Amino acid sequence: MALARVTRQLGDIFDETEWPDLLVGLTLADDAAAWRLDDGRALIATVDFFTPVVDDPYDYGAIAAANALSDIYAMGGQPFLALNLAAMPPELPEEILRGILLGGAEKVREAGAVVAGGHTIDDDEPKFGYAVLGMADPERLGVKSGACAGDQLLLTKPLGVGIITTAFKADQAEPEHLATATEWMKRLNRTAAQALADIERLHAVTDITGFGLLGHAWEVAERSGVRLLLCYGALPFHPGAQRYADELLFPALANSNLADYGDHVRFGPGLEFEQQLLLFTPETSGGLLISLPPDDAERYTRAAAALGQPVWRIGQVLAGVPGIEVV
């Protein structure tokens, strides 16, 4: 996206050699910033907020919290502190604002973290989210640049919430489809991250959010210098997602992601345009995309199952010029 590209250009202002404890900053542009506190601790910092994706205030707050917390989990960290970020119309009834804040606060508490303040401004359209701090082992950061040829690619949540919520806004979504998508959006990536605890070396980890599966997969491919092979038939989708794709109920950002990342993706001849665009569709509070060698992938899958966390094997990592193939 344009803002991401412009932000990365600011790296010229900050010579990161002057800040040797900055482990992840503008130069690497990963899921969150990371600062080494000492040999055993790195501070992880992230921020995320967005407009409502559902009507229920409590659910909106909970989804916004799970989405913001996700970057901490993707970096291999545990969140400990969050700050509210709210832009709300001044005429918004107080009970709605309270519902949003309550949903978010209870989700932060579920994560074992605390809401300690925040900032609110007036705005015509509601926007809500969090700035979040977490702690991680500096030697075990989950970054996008470590995928290796031979790795397996794992995904920890189904795809399709972006198109389902767009269909909902157009009064085209079935209530049960929205309900299922909402529950998954509220689900923390906590157990998905916990299952990585016994993996000695994390290769590559990211979470699937606004750039869609293929946008975030391209970041892994580019920064790791590898090709990713994805199997469309192995991808998990929320009920209704493929139907709404056939009905072309895509959000505008799906086409933006296609424009930004489409040149890096090659599709098999059997995949229709609607199936292709579905993989560029933004996700809200999506799952983790993890690259691990086969033995570790098997170990991770077993550990996740013991925690009640589903995992889907969706492809593999190949040597070659960075890019993505979907077959």
Written overview of the protein:
The protein is an alpha+beta fold and 327 residues long. The chain folds into 2 domains: 2-136, 60s Ribosomal Protein L30, Chain: A (2-Layer Sandwich), CATH 3.30.1330.10; 152-326, Phosphoribosyl-aminoimidazole Synthetase, Chain A, domain 2. Helices cover 36% and strands 24% of the residues. It has 11 helices and 13 strands. It has a 7-stranded mixed sheet with strand order 8-11-7-12-9-13-10. α2 packs parallel to α3, α4 (161-169) packs across α5 (175-186) and α7 (212-224) runs parallel beside α9 (252-261). The longest helix has 18 residues, at 57-74. The chain starts with a helix and ends with a strand.
Which overall shape is indicated by the principal axes computed on the Cα atoms? Answer: globular
Mean pLDDT: 95
Share of residues in strands = 15-25%
- Here the CATH topology of the largest domain equals Phosphoribosyl-aminoimidazole Synthetase, Chain A, domain 2
Largest sheet: 7 strands, mixed
Domain count, please report it.
2
Strand order of the largest sheet: 8-11-7-12-9-13-10
By secondary-structure content and strand pairing, the structural class works out as alpha+beta
**What's the N-to-C terminus distance?**
26 Å
Measured as a percent range, the helix fraction is 25-40%
Q: Can you tell me the CATH superfamily of the largest domain?
A: PurM-like C-terminal domain
Low-confidence stretches are none
Quickly name the level 1 CATH class of the largest domain: Alpha Beta
